[in-house]
Amino acid sequence: MLNKKFKYGIISAPQPEAVEVGLEIFEKGGNVVDVAIATALIQTVVDPQMCGIAGFGSLQMYLNDKRGHQAIDFYGRAPLSVKEDMWLDLIKKECDDGFGFVLEGRVNEFGYQCMTTPMTLKAFDFALKKYGNFTLSQLLDPAIKYCNEGFSIRPKVHAFWMQPAQAGRMARVSVVNHFPEAKKIYLDKDGNLLKVGDLLKNPDMGKTYKKIAEEGIEVFYEGSIANKICQDMKKNGGLITKDDLQSCEIEENSPLEGIYKGFDIFTNRPPGGGIMLIQMLNILENFDLASLGHNSAKYISVVSEAMKYATIDKDKKVGDPKFIDVPVEELISKKYAKKLSDLIKSGEKANVARFDSSSIESKDTTHVSVVDTKGNAVSLTHSLGSSSGVITEGLGFMYNNCMMVFDPRPGNVGSLAPGKTRFTSMCPTIIKNADKLKLIVGAPGGTTITMGVLQTILNVLDFGMSASDAVSAPRFITTSNTIELTNRILRKTEKSLQNLGYPTVRYAVSYATPLVHAIRVSNGDLDAGADPAGDGLALGI
Prior knowledge:
- α1 (16-27) runs antiparallel to α2 (32-46), α12 crosses α14 and α12 (274-284) crosses α17 (449-461).
- 35% of the residues lie in helices and 18% in strands.
- It has helices spanning 16-27, 32-46, 120-131, 136-149, 155-161, 172-176, 180-186, 203-215, 218-221, 224-235, 242-247, 274-284, 289-292, 297-317, 328-331, 334-345, 449-461, 467-472, 491-499, and strands spanning 9-13, 56-63, 68-74, 91-94, 101-103, 151-152, 199-200, 251-253, 256-260, 263-267, 365-372, 377-383, 429-433, 436-442, 476-477, 483-485, 504-506, 517-522, 525-530, 537-540.
- The chain has two domains: 9-252 and 364-405, no CATH class; 256-360 and 425-531, Serum Albumin, Chain A, Domain 1 (Orthogonal Bundle), CATH 1.10.246.
- 58% of the residues are buried.
- It has 19 helices and 20 strands.
- The longest helix has 21 residues, at 297-317.
- With 541 residues, it is α+β, with helices and mostly antiparallel strands.
- The strands form five sheets. The chain has a seven-stranded antiparallel beta sheet with strand order 8-3-2-12-11-1-20, with helices on one face. The protein has a six-stranded antiparallel beta sheet with strand order 9-10-13-14-18-19.
């Protein structure tokens, strides 16, 4: 037993409704995989633009038996009909953090051409059939109930809808209420967007989930739901066809492994963000971070340089390994990290080049971390990107908009190609110490994910924080040459950074994305933290 205080285990996620259902599944005999996916299915209902069955994601698990560490990747793939240069003439600018492009007509961001193949539903079914005690049909029942009975709109859900235009992207309210099916769900009888505390019901999604529960996922990928999806796409100039739905496959592989100061790191492989995470940890292993002082100017400058070097390498070298040769061993080698750390120690500043830049990425994803009292763990991140706005009539769920992140310029690591996956910063991670669980961590938050997860890991491993303190500590993000600071970073520290030659941006908010959720194992005890920037909950049973 890891913790005598909990009979079953502990969950941390951004949605209290989802955590509650996950705890119920624990009580009914579910294992960590069942609990994680039950939680995730509720997330698709109560955070319907953050995630959904028409999305993508990555799952890390550790099963305390012969199966050990497993990774299930279900990244969205470009439709088979795409052409490498089809958007070349539409480029306006690259996002400041290098995560996507703004195009004329916003065809890659919004509407029927911005979707990658829906992978989430297939992944959940795959994981349950291979590792779960429950069926997808059983775990859909609570989600169907929330669809039909409704849920109270939380502040973070509403905040997403009201997110202003950023990075040259559309204001999110323009996405939520543009298409008739979305209006039907998210506007009141007077045509106004639903408010915090209003009850949101989605009976069409409930019908879709019920049909999937009764007929299996085949109905979504090959049957009547697939037919509706494809008819809608064809009618409105969409890129997804039945060939895309029928050909998508889930990938199961071993996790990407690293070592940080004696701790074993298990995270996701490219095109996931785990490679950035391990590279940054390798660089920082060459510094006595604790001696620098937590969130001192020197500490922030050192960690920011590691963030910048990992970002530069991601932009140039990391993509879908089925299409490009990703130099994984080079990027996560201790030798390469030592070279970069020496550059940082010399005072040299990395330069993150951008193409006509002026932006910040959307941060719309969700996460769940689960650990049980038997030493099993799951870290699951899944997303719709920032959502397409499109809902097929009668189906209730929104599609992803992950085509936005592909590079419309031919010949680059992230360029368009049929069936290709784009880079994602998702990095669900499990950390062990002497073969025992130490930290389970992950986050939503676009390109900020790896940076938030990194700081949470450092907070626990280098500064000895609890999971709650680690996810709550003031954070900074550096995905360009500018260091972005939350409002709890001291102003004198910001001034010191500026004196060191760093441009800075200060958020008005005290807490910002990513929304990190973590569970720590310490001396046989479990403690969890839900990022205070969200509506989340960390709770054991």
